[in-house]
Amino acid sequence: MISSIILQDASGTLASMLPFLAMIAVLYFFMLRPQMRKQKKEKSFQSEIKRGTKVVTSSGIHGKISDINTNDNTVTIETGAGKIKFERSAISMELSKKYLSPVKK
């Protein structure tokens, strides 16, 4: 009799925790996992930057990479106003034809 009471209590606890586990799973698959994937892709892009690539910084500055310094992890970007030195991590995305093409209707 005591063992049946303990089993009933354990199954009730599991059933009450099921909504919490479901919320954690939804949070992971719809918010955390895509964010981690995006960060991994961005980090990979930043490490593969080459000279002459047209880029956009995280602050919105458009330019072309003119120099890469691997010692202090910086890049020099040539803009319309001149050359500016940025941390490599400040490069947000590549400005390519894919982003510049007009939207098709």
From TrEMBL:
Its main location: membrane. GO terms for biological process: protein transport. Pfam families: YajC. It is found in: Cell membrane. InterPro entries: Preprotein_translocase_YajC. The chain crosses the membrane at residues 12-31. It is a single-pass membrane protein. SMART domains: YajC. Keywords: Cell membrane, Membrane, Protein transport, Translocation, Transmembrane, Transmembrane helix, Transport. GO terms for cellular component: plasma membrane. Signal peptide: none annotated. Belongs to the YajC family. NCBIfam families: yajC. This is Sec translocon accessory complex subunit YajC. It comes from Polaribacter porphyrae.
